[in-house]
Design a protein that fits this description.
The structure is a single chain. Helix content is 17%, strand content 36%. The protein has 236 residues and is of the alpha+beta class. It has a six-stranded antiparallel β-barrel. The longest helix has 20 residues. The chain starts with a strand and ends with a strand.
């Protein structure tokens, strides 16, 4: 099992770790990592692993293994490798991660501005989208931007806490997403709370306060079927 340090502190940029396995494709499995594994609409982190001899191994992507207990670091083509048992250093590409954290938290706020079931979503580099189960269009980009920015400007603290699977089952209203289910398997689920604004299950990385999102705007509203509206946002 890989300890996902990013779940407890999304601002960690590096850590030491031990190589516990290598996949047939050349992926590197560590006992702990600061690199976020792709999931929930958020891309996997990039970065590098520094081997015991100081050789840097660029990591192009980070994903979960088949049973989701192991996190696989995918090296760039032609990169050097390491051996099982090696002590290494993991370094996050912060310049890629930081905009994604800001977008992810902004999308949580968007789900408050538009309180409808979420049918899908994606996080990009400085932009993102949510799909809503919403038949009536009638959505105005300027009005939505104003409401979204107002929530950002409240500079509300963002925190997380854990509940059991049973507690989540007893409170189904916490789950806003129809297509992406909260990460389970360990017997507990992480809730991300934006103080006074939002509370929902999420395993992704987030900013510490909404003010860190900065300027954000609704850039497009698309009709994606009879009862589906795609709303896109972008950081300023």
């Amino acid at each position: 099992m890989t300890e996902p340090l990013f779940r407890d502190d999304a601002f960690l940029r590096d850590c030491t770790a031990r190589v516990v396995a290598l996949t047939p494709e050349g992926g590197i499995v560590l006992d702990r990592t600061v690199l976020y594994a792709q999931g929930g609409g958020q891309p996997g982190d990039a970065g590098r692993i520094v081997g015991p001899d100081g050789t840097p191994i660029p990591i192009a992507n980070t994903v979960y293994g088949p049973d989701r207990s192991a996190i696989v670091h995918v090296p760039a083509p032609g990169a050097a490798t390491v051996s099982v048992g090696d002590e290494v250093r993991v370094e996050l590409d912060w310049e890629k991660r930081w905009p994604r954290m800001r977008v992810h938290t902004a999308l949580h706020l968007l789900s408050v501005v538009l309180p409808y079931p979420v049918t899908g979503g994606a996080i990009g580099d400085g932009e993102g989208r949510l799909d809503f189960d919403l038949q009536e269009a009638g959505l105005d980009k300027a009005e939505l931007t104003q409401k979204l920015q107002a929530l950002v400007d409240r500079d509300a603290p963002v925190s997380f806490r854990w509940i059991t699977d049973e507690e989540l089952d007893a409170n189904p209203g916490l789950v806003k997403t129809m297509s992406v289910k909260p990460p389970r398997g360990s017997g507990r689920v992480r809730l991300v709370e934006i103080a006074g604004i939002d509370l929902q299950p999420c395993g992704g990385t987030h900013v510490g306060r909404t003010g860190e999102i900065g300027s954000v705007a609704v850039t497009d509203i698309e009709k994606k079927g009879k009862q589906n509206r795609r709303v896109r946002i972008r950081l300023g």
